[in-house]
Structure formats: C-alpha cells, structure tokens
Amino acid sequence: MNDKLAGLSQTQLDAHWMPYTGNRQFKRDPRMITAADGCYFTSADGRQIFDGLSGLWTCGAGHNRKEIAKAINQQLETLDFAPSFQFGHPGSFKLAERITRLMPEGLNRVFFTNSGSEAVETSLKIARAYWRKRGLASKTKLIGRSKGYHGVNFGGVSVGGIGANRAIYGPALSTAHLPHTLLPENRFSRGQPEYGAHLAESLLEIIELHDASNIAAVIVEPMAGSAGILPPPEGYLQRLRDICEQHQILLIFDEVITAFGRLGTATGAELFGVVPDIINIAKQLTNGVIPMGATVVQQTIYETFMQQGGADYQLELPHGYTYSAHPVACAAALATLELLERDNLFKHSAELAYLLEEYIHQLSNLPLVYDIRNCGLAAALTIERAPGEPLLHPFRIALKMWEKGFYVRYSGDTIQLGMPFITRREEIDGLVNALAESVLEVA
Ligand code: PLP
After folding, report:
1. What is the rounded distance in angstroms from the CA atom of residue 295 to the CA atom of residue 113?
2. Which UniProt keywords apply (predicted)?
3. Which of 18, 58, 114, 117 to mutate to test the pocket of ligand 1 (most atoms within 8 A of CB)?
4. Which ligand 1 atom minimizes the distance to the CA of 118?
5. Sign (positive/negative) of CA torsion 220, 222, 225, 228?
6. For ligand 1, is residue 149 a contact (CB within 6 Å)?
7. ipTM of this model?
8. Which domain, by its residues, includes 438?
9. 325 in a structural domain
10. What's the 440 CA to ligand 1 centre distance in angstroms?
11. What is the pTM of this model?
12. Are residue 54 and residue 77 in the same domain, yes or no?
C-alpha cells in the first residue's frame, strides 16, 4: 500500500473534486495531511511538515490550540445551533463587540458570514443597498483592482482582478478595475514601496468615464495577498480614501488575510493609517478552526438601514446565511481573539516580520527569482516563467519544499510565505534555506 494515500482507495480519492487544485496531479501523487500541532503538519507518510502559510493564512496562533478546542467543545455541549434569523444567542453579540474593539474607530457594526467570499458579497450588497436607501439608486457600479482577490462568488469574481479566476465563467457584474500596484521599478523593495501613490489617480479616470453618480464602492485588499503579497505604495491608500470621500463612493477594505495579526496589527487599516467604510474579515478570526467571516461597517451605514427600515419588525437588510454567527464559530472566534491578545501574538508577528524580511531578501540573487516582496509576516517570490509553461516553476519549487518538509503556497507565478505568529527564528531560517535549495534544484 502507498502510505501517501493514508489508506484511501482510488475510488475515494476520485470522489472528491478538490478546490483550487490540479486534481489529476494530486490524485497521482497525493500530499495528504493527517494531523497538525503548533507550526507543523503530519503528512500521511509520517513526516513533520513546517506550515509556511499558516494553513491558508488562517492559523496564525498555530495548530491544535487547546483553548480554542475547549471553547468549541463547551459550546457544542451547551448550544449546538441557534436559528440565525429572527432569534439570537449571546455568543454572537459578545463576539461582535469584541471584534469592534479591534477595528478602526467608527467601524462598529458586524454582519456575520461563513467565509471571506461571503463577507465580500455581503459588503458589495450592503454598498449598493446603502446608496439606494440614501436615495441614490443609480450608484451600483463596483470598482475592483487588477490582481485583486475577493473570493469566488460572482460579486467577488467580478471585482477580482486575477484573470484565471474569471476567464471561464462568462459575464460578470458591472465593474471597472484600478491598475495593480506591482511596478517593475519597485522590484525587490522591502515592505511598502515608496513609489506608486500616483496609481490611485486612476480612480479619477474611472470616475470621469462612469460618473460618481453610478459608482457604489471601491474594494481593495490593503495588501493584496493572493496575487503574491503586494504592499500598497506609500500614500496610495490615503489617496484612494480621499478620492472616495470627495466623490461619495464607499471604500471597502478586504482584510480577509490582513486582519488579526498578519501585518503585526489588528488590521491593515491600522497599519497603513487609513480608515475605510467597510472591512471584510475571515480566516484568522477563528484561527481557521471553524469557517467564519464578517463584514464590519461604519455605524453611519448601519444607522441608514435602521432609519430607512420601515416598521421595526421588518427586515432592514434581506440578506444572511443559515450559518451566520453559528454558535460554535462564535465560540471559536472569541477564544481565538482572547488567545491572540493574551499571548501578545500581533506583537510576535510584527517582530518576526523583520526577520522574514531580512532572510527572504537574501534570495534575491538566485536564478529564476524575478522579484521578492514582503509586508508584515508575509512574503512572496515571483518566479520566472518556463517557456510555454508559465506556472510550472512555482509548482515544482513548492513540491521540492514539500519533499524537504515545508509547506508553502504556489499560486500563479509566485511562491507565498506566511508562517504562524509563534514561529521560531531558526524555523524561518530553515524555511528560507530550503527555499533557496529548492529554487536552485528547479533552475
Ligand atoms: N478576500 C480575500 C482578500 C482573500 O484573501 C480570500 C481568500 O483567500 C477571500 C476573500 C475568500 O475567502 P474564502 O476562501 O474564505 O471564501
């Protein structure tokens, strides 16, 4: 028996259509994970694999945290489910208030979802409905950004800017896109590039073309993650904020990756000093243990819906999910936020970020490495394309890493890193050394 299969039959392997995965390759050569603890996964063939991406940017506090497991178990034994529509349970209100303490001032109303994608859809729907409630129903167009990632549902794909995620799905919502901020002049810059704030001016061109009276919102990741760690140029986000303000356009920050410590702060808004109207969160909110996301809005937005809501038993927003604010997810999130605070993990993350920056830029002279970027405890390498097979090199590098005992993400032409906030210095060193070897082996 091939122990890489964890005892699964071929029929079982075939039955699962895996997300964002080359299914045929995976099923030929599975990378099966059977356990996790701290910063390590256990693979089906019994190896310890360092988790170089905190799961999927989810598990910053490390795996198998007893505090979270205990809270989940207690919740399960007390209240396993409560209807999310028209009835409530205390956990969601406690959690909502706890979240608002970590958000920029004014963002203090929380709508719960089950994923980042759902948080994105929620924010886009709220933005459109908000203007309608304000008597400005023509403000419907949504502005995204090239290389942006906002999940997989139709709204998110429409504002998203990664071509491969859009190409095969046919017409999307009415959108326009800002240019991305990945400038060749900024190759190998550390943290936020100094140059590039002028790219925000493109929003003025979009406004000129479509007119602000037709535009509901601009959505950007303060630091674009999925396209390969694109920190915002200095001054860029503030300029977007100012233009949105001047033209009555809502600014949405998609902080599904950046919220709760990845940048060493509670949010990207905090780190970059720019306050949007809406923030989307997910992933680190429950340390990845239970699916959960949320859309956090400025109180003024919430108040508009309340004031325009009709009789008080009527729905102000006909929107929500069966599992919105699931009691078990709320328990997991409350325990996670408690743990992040108790163990000072935002600070740990910020301290490790300096080390990651120092180590990762040592790879700049390697063959195949076209660019290196970092921001907070996140970094990415852009890898030169193999002739005719643009995505092959990153895939091969990531497989080499897996063989060497490291999990990193390969996506498009990038390799992405985002280790847990509890990583030790030697582990970052080890990962970066293994990455250097892997790149050299593939080159
Ligand atoms: N938005 C951003 C910025 C993300 O990075 C992601 C996922 O990586 C999403 C939305 C989608 O989240 P989910 O996969 O939980 O639906």
Report:
1. 8
2. Aminotransferase, Pyridoxal phosphate, Transferase
3. 117
4. 16
5. positive
6. yes
7. 0.99
8. 31-61+344-442
9. yes
10. 31
11. 0.98
12. no
